[in-house]
Please model this.
Amino acid sequence: MKTFKTLLFSLLFGAATLAFAADGSVTITAPSDGATIKANTETKLDYEINPGARGDHFHIYIDGKESVVRSLKGSYTLPKLSPGKHTITLKVVDKGHTPTGPEKTITLTAE
Model:
């Protein structure tokens, strides 16, 4: 009986993992959430997007201002940010530009 329970758990966990992967993911590798960057200079945002089954590309929002990005892995040069706190959000969207769910938000402080 213990073997059956272990097998059942493995199957359910595996199915959940596959379902999660199918939904996609957003990873920001640099700068880190809460980082302090130099104000009024360009900063590179390193990212990797798994658009999942429903996604096509992603939008980046810098303090609410939207840009469309098609490359799913690489770097995006942030504009020169004024001193203060800033919010950066990446959202996976479909071909119609509708968000599909996966997103990541970080905050930065420019000094």
About this structure: Residues 24-110 form a domain with the Immunoglobulin-like fold (CATH 2.60.40.10).
